[in-house]
């Protein structure tokens, strides 16, 4: 399932963009609308057109509906202010009163709370979003990870992205196209490739 979900990003890992419109937009002129750009955890963009009077919950509803996210409480939308300080979007307040840069207003979907019991998560899609958040946190250095653990996680990430290892196709050059840690070396990529070979058959 993770492999299927990861392929929703597009062929060759290319970033894609999706635009959705609020249900009331057909009755509203463009001058009464604002555009919100939401950067998802897989790197793709979601553009949402909302009323200028929209509150945070309106945007949350559109994003969660678009992604088919059911376990919503784990996630939040984060924006950056003019002082480069990050804030969570308050669902009860007007968007334009909170996000001062824009329009378009740019926000990022992020995991806001982690479950203390990951096995209790009901939805595969929720687990996949957690996986994407952890992968991003390791890559950007927000989450420290021992090298042996990073190698194992990188191999599992490759398994979800590429499927089973194929000799002659999945070469070190292919592995080097993926970034897993801030200071990734060729030696580490060889270790990742060796570990990736052991993941055959995992889904």
UniProtKB/TrEMBL annotation:
CDD domains: FERM_B-lobe, FERM_F1_EPB41L5_like. Residues 1-12 have a biased composition (Basic residues). It comes from the Eukaryota. One of its GO terms (molecular function) is cytoskeletal protein binding. Residues 13-24 have a biased composition (Polar residues). It is found in: Cell junction, Adherens junction; Cell projection, Rhabdomere. Residues 34-203 form the FERM domain. Gene3D superfamilies: 1.20.80.10, Phosphatidylinositol 3-kinase Catalytic Subunit, Chain A, domain 1. One of its GO terms (biological process) is neuron differentiation. GO terms for cellular component: adherens junction; cell periphery; cytoskeleton; rhabdomere. InterPro entries: Band_41_domain (IPR019749), Ez/rad/moesin-like (IPR000798), FERM/acyl-CoA-bd_prot_sf (IPR014352), FERM_2 (IPR035963), FERM_central (IPR019748), FERM_CS (IPR019747), FERM_domain (IPR000299), FERM_N (IPR018979). Pfam families: FERM_M (PF00373), FERM_N (PF09379). Residues 1-24 are annotated as: Disordered. This is Moesin/ezrin/radixin homolog 1. It comes from Homalodisca liturata.
